[in-house]
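Format notes (please read before filing issues)

Several people have asked whether sequences and structure tokens are stored in separate files. They are not. Every record keeps both together, in the order shown below: the sequence lines, then the token lines. Line labels are part of the format and must not be stripped during preprocessing.
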Amino acid sequence: MDESSLYEMVLDEDPSVQPLSAGATTFKSAVSSFIDLLIEQGAPTIVWARLPRGESWQLEIDRYCKQAEAAQVACVFYSPAEDGAMESSETPSVALQLNCPAPGKLELLTESGENWLAAHQATPQIAIPLERGSLMRGEYFLMAVSAKFQGLLLARRAKSPAVSAPKDSADFLAGPHEGLGGESKSQLRLLYSSRPGVVRQVLSSLQQLLMRVPSNHLFVTLTMSASIATHASISIEALLRHWEQLFVLSELDTSEMQMLNQLVMKQLQRQEELWRRVSNYRKQAELAESLQLQQEELANTIRLKDEFLNLVVQELRTPLTSMKTALSLINSPNLKTNQRQRYIQMLNTECDRQNSLIGGLLNLAQIEQVGETTLQPLTLIEIVPGVVSTYQPLAQEKEIMLAYTIPDTLPQVLSLAPWLRQVIVNLLHNSIKFTDKGGRVWVRAKRQGEYVQIDVQDTGLGISSSEIPKIFNRFYRVRSTTGEDFGGAGLGLTIVQQLLLRCGGSITVNSRLGQGSTFSVLLPVYRQDSEPEEMEF
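Then the structure lines:
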């Protein structure tokens, strides 16, 4: 048996001990209760500890050192490869002499003979490096030794737990080699004993570990406040020399003590059962909440689909009614030529609207079905001028000045070429449609932090402040102050917004009635030091 395996040694020394399968929370709670007991019992006590890495565990040792009035010292084992912060590259300038004036009484003296502990009125922590490869690396313990009381709380990481323990402490996760990382590694075999024979055997094992420490100096820290700490060192040789005098154990080892140990283990088992029950209730509550949210989301999706379907039906029914009325009147023998021409024009307008509606619906359906899409780096100067030139004939027909200003120094943006073209097309189409003869429409672009901003500005009719929040809604069409019907399905801006959202962009509008509108598009800048982003929808 390896002398550094405390767990196996305790089981050999006291076969009556029945280890408990427990999780990190139960062990953490037991450590806190043990510290509370040491603080309250008030006897001069030396504490030995090896706890998982993490601030919350170290705080328990700090709490003992600050609050226990009769504390002697806290000896804390650590693994040098992982807890490098506890190491010191140089021996502290203050070298202390360890003395034992009376059994169970420890003094740390300076070179001048001053009692270092009495002068600072605090409890020091002695950092003890563990030998590499020690079997103790999977074990954690807290042991107190005094003339009136001794007790050992020990936990060993279970290799193959029968029951998976919950992930109950973030600070408990310490990586693949040390600590208790992962769900299976957080399962522990936990035991407690206050029998003098067990404590004596553990002290003997710790003594053997100290003999194998490569350096003769141990690092000592005395915490004065949250921001002030004093450092010193003591020699291992002096500690070993006074070993027998430092530890005065009670020889009381009766059946009542064995019953007390069993009582503590029963209490720990009860606490573990309560924790698991609470954990299961919490998981069930989280699952119920998740299912409720999913149900609400599903109900909301169905409601939106129903509303969308009703809107589609309404948008289809209105032009069909107009077309049916025009067809029923167009063959009337009393119909005049100019009236027949007006009805034919109505049919053409409604057919165009139907075609626009169907095209818009297909575009929305395609956008919503997009899954994972790899966005591309695009150069605006290679896309915007081509779109603008396509609309030059329409602009000239309405005597509208159409222009663009795209600096060739702009960085590339992340999008897809068809998406970016569709955005510019829809915005230009709206601007030209709502701009009167002799007006102006132009496209500008500039760098805006981590985005490129594209402004499509016009001198058209403008949009009232009450309508601006609605213009991106499906099938919403801006109402004309003159009563003129501008046609369209009311899906153009909806498509623009959806496309921009899917490439990490956005769109805003600034408009006033009679003063035109400016639609501002933001597209993320392509970062050349990384691969194109994966966007998942």
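For reference, the curators noted about this record: DSSP finds 13 helices and 20 strands in the chain. The first helix runs from residue 6 to 13.
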